Fold this sequence. Notes:
The chain is α+β, with helices and mostly antiparallel strands. The chain has helices at 17-30, 65-69, 74-84, 102-116, 154-168, 199-208, 235-242, and strands spanning 33-38, 53-57, 87-91, 120-121, 128-131, 136-141, 144-149, 175-176, 179-180, 183-188, 193-197. Strands 4-5-6-7-1-8 form a six-stranded antiparallel β-sheet, with helices on both faces. Strands 9-10-11 form a three-stranded antiparallel β-sheet. It has a two-stranded antiparallel ribbon with strand order 2-3. It is extended, with a radius of gyration of 26 Å.
Amino acid sequence: MTEGIDYNETFAPIPCLTVLRKLIALAARYNWEIKQGDVATAFLSADMDCELYAAVPNWFDADAGEFARLDMSTDDVWSRLKQLAGYLLRKVEKGVPAVPQGPRLFYKKTRGVFSKLRLIQCNSEFCLYYCQERHLYLVIWVDDIFLFFPTIALQQAKELWDNGLRKELDLGEWQDIDDCLACIVTRDRPNRVIKLTQEPAIRKLLLRNNMQDANGKETPMVANSKLSKKDCPSAERAAVIIG
């Protein structure tokens, strides 16, 4: 596929982390509900915006069970399939993985869906949608959807999710937020506190670098470092560094 001929734009926005943090902070303070869900096969749902054809083996629509039962290696099976016959050209109507404009197509689809459901897109944050009438705030991060709303709007939110979003997108049941972009979310409703931690991701990183047995330190400095007054920068130098 050639840029400028088969596609023009590939960019799709993602929300600023500050937006998510602010909404989570508001939810903690005012005891809002936070629901989340994932759009399955996100990049397979949007309509293609160009003429695209794929060469499909003519056995694609047939039952390939006979090959699964054969005692042959994967390479042998593939060679056998290629020998059977030619290929058919099929027009690609929906987005497929690896097309350059895939993220853009999905963004355009979701923007149309949210507009249809009377959600207003924020002018300064394209992944934030809201409905003042229903007291709803929706943030979408690629294929993850987060819905914020006060408890009094539970019925409207449930209707939006079940009768709106799930009908238009391949979206599952909502659930209380427990994972937000690789951060574990814990909530203390009585004290109006929501905490986010990346401990599992950090442990995974340490394990990958064989540092799982390393001792933690509050101050990341070289051990046994000795600092003196002369190591402290002058007021003028400190102003330059800060500036």
